[in-house]
Every structure is written in structure tokens, then in C-alpha cells.
Design a protein that fits this description.
Layout: E1 6-10, H1 16-25, E2 31-35, H2 47-63, E3 68-71, H3 74-87, E4 92-93, H4 99-105, E5 110-115, H5 117-121, H6 123-132, E6 137-142, H7 146-151, H8 158-173, E7 178-181, H9 190-197, E8 202-204, H10 207-220, E9 233-237, H11 241-252
Parallel strand pairs: 1-2, 1-3, 2-9, 3-4, 5-6, 5-7, 7-8
Helix pairs in contact: 1-10, 2-3, 8-9
The structure holds D-glutamic acid.
């Protein structure tokens, strides 16, 4: 049993979509969230750069007492989790491209994956695709501009809508009926995406499965917080602290 907080990080605000699910599944756990918004987006950076940025954040979270780290970023998971596991002696839980449930659920035999360039070019994605989706057609699309839309809070702008129409239109034109959200920023665009896709396809957000997996890992390692004290939530950023505070308050009704 440990009352220490869980560290959660992302290139920016996107990982808060994972934070939200962790809070649901692990309501007694305190959390430290770090948004690397000053260095966002990670998606077009090299794996070496992302690993260096991730390591700096992990050291910071560990110095604040994190007992486990959730890498709430698909791109950082793909680029750096193996390195982090090798060098730091706490459990690391990363994002999984949800190709397996998509391949299982599809009726048309066509699935779509919307993710960053870094994730789609990474080994993890290729391995998962080969393991679980060799019997279906996989249509991939880099979500250029979507991370920025969430970071800048322009999710409802005509430009963001145009990008979503283009990316999702490509999937629908290929008779895709399952769309994997392969970037933790994208769940914040779900209402707009659902309006475009309607009943034609379902979206899969891996955050729920990741939160459940985190619970399993903490349980197995004897790290669950079994005290009934109220959890504390802390939010830090390399970007604009006031902007982060407003975003958290607006989306999760938690004052910093
Ligand atoms: N939320 C990150 C992810 O899941 C966004 C990556 C980026 O900053 O480009 O991939």
C-alpha cells in the first residue's frame, strides 16, 4: 500500500483525457499531472528528442514522490517507454494503440487509426498491427493540426472542422466502421468527430483500458492507496499555467 501520488504526463493537455479515466477507475489515488505544452507537439520530433523530454519529466515527477508513471501520450510511449523502464525502478504504464478491439469489432473488415506521425511510424504500432490486424484492412491517417487545435482551444473552429472532415472522410470513403483514437488529445474532439461520422463508425478510446491496466499493475505491485483520504490533484506545465488551470476547471471541475 502506498499513499504516494501517481505521475501522469503528456506532451500537453491531451493526457488529461487519460487522467479523467484514471480518476474514475482509481478514485482514491492522488495524481501529479505534467503537461509539456511548451514542447508540444511531440508527433513530429525524433524518438531521441522525445526520450530526452520524457526523461526530464519523469525525473521531475519522481522527485515529487511519484510511485508509478502513466505515459499518457501515444507518441511518448512509442518513443521512450522501453528506455524509461530500463532506467527507472518504478512501474510505467503506457498507451496501447487499440487495434486489437477495433479488429475484433469491425463488421466491414476495415478499421481506421488516427494518430500522430511519430506513433504511426513507430515500432509499437507496426508490431501491434501485425499481431492483431493482419486479417483486416487498416487505414491510417496522421491528424495534422489536431493536437494544436486542442492546445490552442480552437476545437470548434471552421479550420478544425475542415481537417476533421478530410481525415474522417478518407476513413468513411474506405468503409471503415471502427476508428481508433491513437492520440490522447483526440478524445477532446469527439463531439465534432461524432457529428461528422454519425452512425457509420464507432470510435475507440484506449484510455479506459489503460486506466484499468494501471489498477492491475498497482494492485500486483502492492502500490494501491487503500486509505480513504481524499486524493489530491496537482497540475503543472512547461507552458501557460493559467491556461492549464482554466482547461482543467472547464473540463473536469477540479480547481488547481
Ligand atoms: N497526446 C499525444 C499523443 O498521444 C500528442 C502527441 C503530440 O504532441 O504530437 O500522441
Amino acid at each position: 500500500m502506498s499513499t504516494q501520488p501517481i505521475g501522469v504526463f503528456d506532451s500537453g493537455l491531451g493526457g488529461l483525457s487519460v487522467w479523467k479515466e484514471i480518476r474514475q477507475v482509481l478514485p482514491h489515488e492522488s495524481m501529479l499531472y505534467y503537461a509539456d505544452s511548451a514542447n508540444c507537439p511531440y508527433g513530429t520530433r525524433s524518438a531521441e528528442e522525445i526520450t530526452a523530454l520524457s526523461e526530464t519529466i519523469v525525473q521531475r515527477l519522481l522527485a515529487q514522490g511519484a510511485k508509478a508513471i502513466i505515459v499518457a501520450c501515444n507518441t511518448a510511449t512509442s518513443a521512450s517507454i522501453a528506455y524509461l523502464r530500463e532506467h527507472y525502478n518504478v512501474p510505467f504504464i503506457g498507451m496501447e494503440p487499440a487495434i486489437k478491439p477495433a479488429a475484433h469489432n469491425t463488421k466491414t473488415g476495415n478499421i481506421g487509426v488516427l494518430a500522430t506521425q511519430g506513433t504511426l511510424e513507430g515500432e509499437k504500432f507496426h508490431d501491434t498491427r501485425q499481431r492483431f490486424a493482419s486479417h483486416v484492412h487498416v487505414f491510417t491517417q496522421v491528424g495534422y493540426g489536431l493536437v494544436e487545435a486542442v492546445e490552442n482551444q480552437t476545437m470548434q473552429s471552421p479550420e478544425t472542422n475542415r481537417l476533421l472532415q478530410k481525415y474522417l472522410g478518407y476513413m468513411l470513403a474506405n468503409n471503415v466502421d471502427q476508428i481508433v483514437l491513437g492520440c490522447t488529445h483526440y478524445p477532446f474532439l469527439l463531439p465534432q468527430m461524432q457529428a461528422i461520422v454519425g452512425e457509420k463508425a464507432s470510435f475507440i478510446n484506449p484510455a479506459v483500458a489503460v486506466a484499468r491496466h494501471a489498477k492491475t499493475v498497482l494492485t500486483l505491485q502492492g502500490l494501491l492507496n487503500e486509505s480513504k483520504d481524499s486524493p489530491t490533484y496537482q497540475f503543472e506545465t512547461s507552458g501557460n499555467q493559467e491556461f492549464l488551470r482554466q482547461f482543467v476547471e472547464k473540463n473536469f471541475l477540479v480547481a488547481k
